[in-house]
Amino acid sequence: MATHGDLIESDRLARLQPGVQKKDDVAQILGSPSSTGVFGDETWYYIADVEERYSVFDRETIERQVVTLRFDQEGVLREMDLHGLDRGREVDLVERETPSYGESPDFLQQVIGNLGRFNKGAQPERR
Question: Is residue 98 part of a domain?
Fold first, then answer.
């Protein structure tokens, strides 16, 4: 088994008191969060997974702990939420590639791309 992240024991979670503690207090009890909210740091996430490994590429997540803490504008803890694998969702990955600019074209693409670009018989535009 392999653990990713810090599984937070229930006694450490019990020390948190919404409406009382600030971010610094929470950081002393739980440590730095695994992640923070996208549009500010009012939401902190503590994420841990326990995986059973069968081989290098074959593994299964058997336990997940996600602790979500929400703070108000003054940095005071307001809400706590704890959940696990029960609220997780499988995401299907798309197996296609997006071409990127800067890839060098092959010879045929260069020839086709230049057709009509150089026209010696064309006369200059009149204004």
Answer: no
